[in-house]
Amino acid sequence: MIAYIFAIKCLHIMEIRRDVFQAIADPTRRQIIEMLMKQPLNLNTIAENFDVSRQAVSLHVKILAECGLVIITQQGRERYCEAQPDKLNEVAAWVEHCRRFWTTQFKSLDKYLHQVQTNKKSKK
Amino acid sequence: MKTHTTDREADFSLVHVCNAPRSLVFKAFSNADALNEWWGPVETNNSVISLDFRPGGIFHFSMEAGGHVSYGRFLFHQIIPDELLEFTNAFADEKAQVVKPPFDLDFPLEIFYRIVFTEEKGKTTLTLTGYPVDATPEEAAGFRSIRGSMDQGFSATFGQLSRFLEKQGI
């Protein structure tokens, strides 16, 4: 029950910001996305894979849905969750940006290290 | 030097080998004069404003291009000299307060980075991992309350996602 109250409170607070990065900032949500990329699953099946309460998993799925990474469809009494690969392009763009940025940083670091070590040798 | 991507347990990871001993490479990250020499985007003129190299301390730097100045910062987390460096990286204002990234691209407000330094035969391998930081402290606190015994941090694998994205030809 306490978890449920927390979930309700969190949902209220978290209406502030919704984007794909918030979706993947949490390790549980990353795992849920990975599971759903293999196949659509209902909420109970997802919850069985985690130690946390069903309510907590449900909250994560709700956030994923609000971020557009997951679509939830009601089928009878079950709620099926399906990953939305298109939305993951935003993640791919971010990862690519980081890769480019750090690759150039490391090049610059190499240049600096080379200079420092060459200077040391020439001083000797 | 060789740079290649790996399939580690994070959103973003990169491994790089430097042709220098570990202590020197670590010093390049922990010394203001050194950072002034090499840190920052190639497109901008970068200067170190301040460096407080300790957990909770901030590295504040400026990036100038065409008369326009923007700022960035590291907020240091765990530091183990010559071995490990953890920090969050964000765009900042002139007072080192976090600001939104100046891109059209959707981009996380803050990114958590961990760099592991290992040395073999005088060469240093840097293993960099990064992931977006949780959006709000309220959210993080809320989840900690209901997460129970779940491990935090790098407990999830994201390898599957990267393989998936590769398949999509992205």
From TrEMBL, chain B:
InterPro entries, per database record: ASHA1/2-like_C (IPR013538), START-like_dom_sf (IPR023393)
Every Activator of Hsp90 ATPase homologue 1/2-like C-terminal domain range: 19-166
Similarity field: Belongs to the AHA1 family.
Protein name: SRPBCC domain-containing protein
Source species: Chitinophaga solisilvae
